[in-house]
UniProtKB/TrEMBL annotation:
Compartment(s) where it occurs, according to its Swiss-Prot or TrEMBL record: Membrane
Entry keyword set: Leucine-rich repeat, Membrane, Repeat, Signal, Transmembrane, Transmembrane helix
Keyword set includes Transmembrane: yes
Pfam families with a match to the protein in the record: LRR_1 (PF00560), LRR_8 (PF13855), LRRNT_2 (PF08263), Pkinase (PF00069)
Gene Ontology terms: cellular component: membrane
PROSITE patterns reported in the protein's UniProt record: LRR, PROTEIN_KINASE_DOM
Provenance organism: Nicotiana attenuata
Membrane-related topology note: Single-pass membrane protein
This protein's name: Inactive leucine-rich repeat receptor-like protein kinase
Residue stretches spanning the membrane: 630-655
InterPro entries, A to Z: At_inactive_RLKs, Kinase-like_dom_sf, Leu-rich_rpt, Leu-rich_rpt_typical-subtyp, LRR_dom_sf, LRR_N_plant-typ, Prot_kinase_dom
Length: 951
């Protein structure tokens, strides 16, 4: 070998080697600078980037993975609570293949140099707070995954989106995108997963999707798409998941969908689809879940549904289906959830339903079903929700249900069921909600042992039960007990006081006798007490005046006698009282709920009223009562002058207290004359106008809210209207102490509640604390909507209206908007329903739903501008439908999610029902309270179901 010839070649090799080393060193230095630039733009509260320092090789930095040549290949910093803006430098890394910054708090726009990252294969920026437009389509040759979901990205999908031709995963869901889907999307021929759900997209779903033969998943739900479902989708034979829910799709379901032989999940609920279910759909033998509910579908459910042997969930409720429930359903071995409620189905429930299935939820309510409840309905031993109300079912409750230990929620009301309750039926260990009212059931319920430790709601009303009332139901958690409209007799058990959680007790329309037990006063949470239409005697117990939240008291049509306890009129929470058709005598209290009591609520007694009250109560003034009355004559003669003196003193005190609460006129150096109305006698003694105007109280703490009289255009009925708020007494509603009005402005004076508003208090709270707050707000709404007459609508349930005290109790502060719903000063709020045409109870429910979303996710619609609160709802729907709890739950509660996942999912379900676009679809406050109370105190659905049955 010629050694002379090898020297130049060796030198060349050496030069190239040195050059490569130099180049690599320069490249590595450049990458170091780019990473440090990225770190400089990010806030890192958890210290995840603490080791990003120049003195240490970046290949050993947390979240940085290098390739064999020590170049940055991957950046993995998901879920690190990073905030700030994302630096352009990250997309200048020449060799990076994967970037995952998902589940953080990053904001700002996605850098414009996004497309310069030519080596990039995987990019996930989901679950952040990015704004601005989507990046323009670009030929990034290797990019396979682009996930920008659950941000606040706006604008249209770029027309050149098809340039991302190598994509396999495209997820823009949970943003605020508008416009239509560009047809160029069909150029992404390798796409397998397409998610555009929870945006504001419109137009028709492009038929060009049918050209994308490799698609496996399409999720376009929670948008405003219109038109029909393209028949071309039926050509996507690789598709296993199709979700087009919550749009405005019309027309019939294309029969071509029957060609999707790999389809496992088909969700088309909440659209405007019509016509029958195409028979071709029943060829989809791999189908696991089929949900076509909330449409206008019609026709019969065919027997060929037996071909769907892998079906686990079938939801066809809220349609117009007719005919019988197909017997073929009994042959589906994996069927767990069957919901056909609110249709026009007739005939009998198939006798073998449940025998060969694995039923966990069965809801056939609100149909025209007849016959008996099948014996084998709980054969699997897993049934926990049985909802059959509002049909024409007959016969006895099957004995087999008495052995169904998995049952939790049972609603059989409004049927024609008969017979007695079996001994075992009253010993079901997990049932927390039992409603069998409005049937023909009979027998004594006190001759068996009740042992239902989980029971919270029991309704046996309007049946034919008789005998005495049980001393116990085997639970101390009972919150709602309705035994009205039966034939119960005997005394009200004194053990009734053991129900410390009881909020509603209805025993009306029975044959109960004896006295009202004093022990009722031990039920400190009792809001509604209805003992009307019985044979009760004796006096009203003085102890009823000690019940702190009693709101509705109905003692009418009994044999009660004596005088009305004066202190009963001082129960601040009491709003409605009916004592008509008894044997009461004496003076009617002129305080509290008795101030403006209707004549129908006091008629049929021997009562008299204070002067001036006869217009409302219909009672004669007490001075008109004949002095020849035996009782009065005897008392006068016996006590003589002494009694007159005492009586006069009492009258003076009484008149003085009435005057304290009446409208006063007070002069002030500020704004001239003031009209003041006090709603609290104690406050009227300790608070002066100067105190209110200066907002400085030495002995009594208050919260003052001033408003401009002129701008609000306050009507003449101001003092009458404000009285409604002044009478409100509930532990979860801030008490209004007084109202003041001058020519220029007005002032509302509230009881001071020490604490923070909801948005300020929520940070760092765990699940248990947030759960307590949610229930407190719901109970306040239930009280305002159902216990006040007329009902009170809040108007704007925003976080600033909710004060959280040191014990995590929620206090809702009412405002002028609550009364002046049509005033010029009231503007639409993020917390008022989107149908805003004047506030209503259902708009209150919408606002409450948004508060639930904030409690669960930490996200507040007020964080965004231009009405993006609607998108918070859309985002929540998207996250919930995807069932990835970790993507939407507030990071502060992630540790709690391990043991409370199902309950959090259930609460999100309630939030989404409350924020339904159509007001009629939202639940009422009483149902919300029952639902929240029930699932937070018991084991929730183990399936984490996406949809709920009729409550």
């Amino acid at each position: 070998m010629d050694k002379r010839g090898s020297k130049p070649r060796d030198k060349l090799i050496m030069f190239v080697f040195v050059f490569m080393l130099f180049y690599m060193q320069q490249c590595i230095c450049s990458e170091l600078e780019l990473l440090l630039s990225m770190k400089a733009s990010i806030k890192d509260p958890l210290g995840s980037l603490h080791d990003w320092i120049p003195s240490q090789s970046f290949c050993h930095w947390n979240g940085v993975i290098c390739d064999e040549l020590s170049h940055v290949a991957k950046i993995e910093l998901s879920g690190k609570n990073l905030s700030g803006k994302i630096s352009e430098s990250i997309f200048n890394l020449p060799h990076v293949e994967s970037i995952d910054l998902s589940n953080n708090q990053l904001s700002g726009e996605i850098p414009s140099n996004f497309s310069s990252c030519l080596a990039l294969r995987f990019l996930n920026l989901s679950n952040n707070n990015f704004t601005g437009p989507l990046p323009q389509g670009s030929r990034i040759p290797l990019l396979e995954t682009l996930d920008l979901s659950n941000n606040m990205i706006s604008g249209k999908i770029p027309e050149n989106i098809g340039l991302f031709s190598s994509l396999k995963v495209l997820d823009f869901g949970g943003n605020v995108l508008i416009g239509s889907i560009p047809k160029s999307i069909s150029n992404i021929s390798n796409l397998e997963f397409l998610t555009l759900a929870s945006n504001q997209l419109i137009g028709e779903i492009p038929r060009e999707l049918g050209f994308m033969k490799k698609l496996k998943l399409i999720y376009l739900g929670y948008n405003n798409f219109s038109g029909g479902i393209p028949k071309e989708i039926g050509e996507l034979t690789s598709l296993y998941h199709l979700d087009l829910v919550y749009n405005n799709l019309t027309g019939e379901i294309p029969s071509s969908l029957g060609n999707l032989t790999n389809l496992k999940y088909l969700f088309l609920y909440i659209n405007k689809l019509t016509g029958p279910i195409p028979r071709s759909l029943f060829n989809l033998k791999k189908l696991v879940s089929l949900d076509l509910s909330d449409n206008f579908l019609s026709g019969e459910i065919p027997e060929i549904i037996s071909q769907l042997q892998n079906l686990e969930v079938l939801q066809l409720f809220a349609n117009n289906f007719t005919g019988r429930i197909p017997h073929a359903l009994t042959s589906l071995p994996h069927l767990q959830v069957l919901q056909l409620w609110s249709n026009k189905l007739s005939g009998e429930i198939p006798k073998d339903l449940g025998k060969y299935n694995n039923l966990t939820i069965l809801d056939l309510s609100t149909n025209n079903l007849i016959g008996k409840i099948p014996e084998n309905i709980c054969y699997s031993g897993h049934l926990f929700k049985l909802i059959l109300f509002s049909n024409s079912l007959q016969g006895e409750i099957p004995v087999s249900l008495s052995h169904c230990k998995s049952l939790q929620r049972v609603r059989l009301q409004n049927n024609q069921l008969s017979g007695e309750l079996s001994l075992e039926f009253t010993k079901l260990p997990l049932v927390y909600f039992l409603d069998i009212s409005d049937n023909n059931l009979f027998g004594s319920i006190s001759e068996r042992k009740w042992d239902m430790p989980a029971l919270q709601m029991l309704n046996l009303a309007r049946n034919k039960f008789f005998g005495t009332l049980p001393d116990s139901f085997g639970t101390k958690n009972l919150e709602n007990l309705d035994l009205s409209g039966n034939g119960f007799s005997g005394n009200i058990p004194r053990d009734i006081g053991q129900f410390s959680e009881l909020m509603e007790l209805k025993l009306s329309s029975n044959k109960l006798s004896g006295e009202i037990p004093d022990e009722l006063s031990s039920c400190k949470k009792l809001v509604t007490l209805d003992l009307s239409q019985n044979q009760l005697s004796g006096q009203i117990p003085m102890s009823l005046s000690e019940m702190p939240v009693l709101s509705l008291l109905d003692l009418s049509m009994n044999e009660l006698s004596g005088e009305i306890p004066p202190n009963l009129g001082k129960v601040e929470s009491l709003v409605l009282v009916n004592i008509s058709h008894n044997h009461f005598h004496g003076i009617l209290p002129s305080t509290g709920a008795f101030l403006a009591i209707n004549s129908s609520a006091v008629v049929g007694n021997q009562l008299c009223g204070s002067r001036g009250d006869e217009i409302t109560s219909g009672l004669p003034p007490c001075k008109a009562v004949k002095k020849s009355s035996i009782w009065w004559f005897f008392l006068t003669c016996l006590l003589g002058i002494l009694v007159l003196l005492v009586f006069s003193a009492l009258v003076v005190v009484f008149i003085q207290r009435r005057r304290e609460l009446k409208l006063k006129k007070v002069e002030s150096t500020q704004d001239g004359n003031w009209d003041i109305q006090f709603f609290d006698s104690k406050a009227s003694k300790s608070i002066t106008l100067n105190d209110i105007l200066s907002s400085e109280i030495s002995n009594t703490q208050i919260f003052v809210k001033k408003f401009n009289h002129v701008n609000l255009n306050i009507p003449k009925s101001f003092w009458t209207d404000i009285q409604e708020l002044g009478n409100v007494r509930h532990p979860n509603v801030v008490k209004l102490i007084a109202a003041c009005k001058s020519e220029k402005c007005g002032i509302l004076v509230y009881e001071y509640v020490e604490g923070k508003n909801l948005s300020e208090a929520i940070g760092g709270m765990n699940w248990e604390r947030r759960k307590k707050i949610a229930i407190g707000i719901a109970r306040a709404l239930k009280y305002l909507h159902f216990s006040c007459s007329p009902s009170i609508v809040v108007g704007d349930i925003s976080p600033r209206k909710v004060i959280i005290d040191g014990k995590d109790e929620a206090h809702l502060r009412l405002s002028l908007q609550t009364i002046f719903t049509s005033s010029k000063g009231f503007s639409s709020s993020a917390y008022v329903g989107p149908e805003y045409k004047g506030i209503s109870e259902k708009s209150d429910i919408y606002g409450f739903g948004l508060l639930l979303i904030e409690l669960l996710t930490g996200k507040n619609p007020a964080d965004a501008e231009y009405g993006l609160h609607e998108n918070v709802v859309d985002w929540a729907r998207y996250c919930y439908s995807e069932c990835h709890l970790e993507t939407w739950v507030d990071p502060a509660m992630k540790n709690d999610a391990v043991n409370n996942q199902n309950k959090m999912v259930e609460m999100m379900n309630v939030a989404l029902q409350c924020t339904a676009t159509e007001a009629a679809a939202r639940p009422c406050a009483s149902d919300v309270v029952k639902t929240l109370d029930s699932f937070v105190r018991s084991n929730s659905c183990g399936l984490g179901l996406k949809r709920c049955s009729s409550v």
